[in-house]
Amino acid sequence: MRASNELDPADFARRIRLHALRMVHAARASHIGSCLSMADIMAVLYTRVLRIDPDNPTDPQRDRLVVSKGHAAAIVYASLAERGFFPVSRLETFCRDGSALTGHINHAVPGVEVSTGSLGHGLPIAVGMALVAKADGSARRIYCLLSDGECNEGSTWEAVLFAPHHKLDNLVAIVDFNQIQSFGRVSDVLALQPFADKWRAFGWHAIELDGHDVGALTAQLAIPAQVAGRPTVVIAHTVKGKGVSFMEDKLEWHYKSPDDQQFAVACAEVGA
Amino acid sequence: MRSAFVDTLMAAAENDPNIWLLSGDLGFSVLERFAARFAGRFVNVGVAEQNMAGMAAGIALSGKTVFIYSIGNFPTFRCLEQLRNDVCHHAADVKIVAVGGGYAYGSQGYTHHAIEDVAIMSALPGMEVFVPCDPAETRAATQLIAASHKPSYLRLSRAGEPELGAGKQSDPYRARVLRKGGDVMILASGPIASVAMAAAEQLGAEGVDVGAASVGCIKPLDEAFVRDVASRARLIVTLEEHMLRGGLYAAVAAALASVPGRAPVLGLGISEQPSDMSVAGSRDALLAAEGLSPPAVTARIKRAMAGEI
To answer: Of A75, B2, B178, B215, most Cβ neighbours within 10 A?
Structure first.
């Protein structure tokens, strides 16, 4: 298994953004804003970081990515299809009757490690996976991608407390910090700042970066253990709806699906 | 029962290096031996049941068999969604072990009374639910779930429960006859089966042909056994240290509902608790208050035999 491949992360990000737009437009689905904010993170993970084999998606020694913000399903399925886990044509079944491509991610889909959708579940699962990797002496790494909104959940903070105590330096949490949660701005609903300091106070090695800078993401995410004995959190400052001007930093695109005209403009802006 | 559980789990862990045990900061005087013998496979996760259940799923999805251990409502209700989503929907090999089932922590108050747990756990997809009545059934159920590779719930009481009945349990999925008899059949789950035995003794002394059986697995229920005894008995009685809704009574009644000419079913269990009722009381006192003492159960069965269900 190799982390790096011939795919270019910037082009991968463009392609998965287009897939996600097509999927939510065709399905009249929600959460496009949440998909677009994490597109560059997913592109770097799937082209430069994760040691995975699309032909053997359950290889015991693969790296694990637990996507805890399961509502961003379209961008997850798009990433897996682009990486070769299943044909791109299958993305057309998103949210269709009888399809495994449910509106919150589904582990019946090859490459999806765990089904999520209720927030605050992913980090505890990832912690369990990291604990076993340590116990087994495996070099596999465990990544968990969280939303900022799910940092309201107590279960997330239970896991945040646990991981440094058990020195899980094979664990990397990535927070898609787009500053907008379901019904308001993070700063208005439940302020998280000083966010990095909170993680540091719990014992994590915390990094802040531009979550749309593929170079910075690659540099920080591809390193196995940033600090020996401590888990790492990458607080990725992102823009909800990134790449589509009228969706950027707008709460409504947590819910709305683009109409035909909006869809055409969005695709043009992303670079169809 | 706790000792029978941990002894059996340790024996299983000796043979299976994939068995892990997580505790929600409980298990004083019970789990220390496991922790000492299998230090790398025991984690006290702290007082954090949601993290414990989610972690258990992550550990299980990495190829392990994970037991999580705490008191009654904590590893069940507190982390219910983790059990449903992360454990059951992923068919993760996680076993939930709750001690203090029913009124075992009597005087500690309602926070420690686990009387809806069987109903809630039974509702979860793919979850198997075991309620052993004595140490022997505890050992058998622990052995079974350690190797079943299925999400499972094991409800234990505390310590000092007597062995009941002479018959050895061959299969924890099957009901176990504790006392032969046919006219009246008492089906019990959990250590309250001792009350069933006492009531049967008394009724037997009064000339009633009464049998008793332990139903140590609520889900999947041994429906063949239930239907068989119902075809021969004049009266079926269920007895459980649990709400009538969603427990043994509900499972037995559902299994028999469509059987023509079946015997009536008298359900004896705990009534729904009013919000203002929270008093101290030993397990025996709380059971007596619910009409679940041996004399009260005996009297209730007599009234049912006279037609008052």
So the answer is: A75
